[in-house]
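Q: Could you predict the 3D structure of PepSY-associated transmembrane protein?
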Amino acid sequence: MRDTVDRQRRAFWLKYLHQWHWISSAVCLIALVLFAGTGFTLNHAGSIEAAPKVEHRKATLPADVLATLAASGKSAPLPAPVRDWIDTRMHLSLAAKDADWSDDEVYLALPRPGGDAWLSIQRDSGEVEYEVTDRGWISYLNDLHKGRNTGAVWSWFIDIFALACLIFAITGLFLLKMHAAQRGATWPMVALGLVLPLVLVLLFIH
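A: Sure. Here are the predicted structure tokens for PepSY-associated transmembrane protein:
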């Protein structure tokens, strides 16, 4: 009777551990490949050459739109008429984020994954200058890996991905435990995965 109960309990846990293991692996599979690949490119960033592409755009605000800019105070987003005009004239969509205001200039930093950008407006003449730098798709993927200038939505995705990886690893550990009796190399391999990076840290990282 006792053996029957133990087998039923084991079957129950095996069923649900396998279920959560494959679900979490499916959720994090593609992202895990992305993060593993960009881990390699980040580790060899000095050996991967990049040729940044820089683009300049210039325009001048009309007087009526410039007037709305002059009426604005410091530490505020660009006025909506200015953002709308820039969107229409320069094909550049600007978020309502705070700009750096001075007596003669309004400066808006526009960092992005895989590059950088900025926009400045002269408050007296209305001259608008925009510069964008593109460092290529490898730099873009590297910045996704680091969560650099990616916004709140991608940050939430990284958190969810990390949680899925934890579930994948923890359920895998329990499955290893339940199958360890039939696989003698299980715990030596797990121990190797723990000891190897620890030894490398102690010996080669100071």
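Q: Anything worth pointing out?
A: Helices lie at 2-43, 63-70, 80-90, 137-146, 151-179, 186-204.
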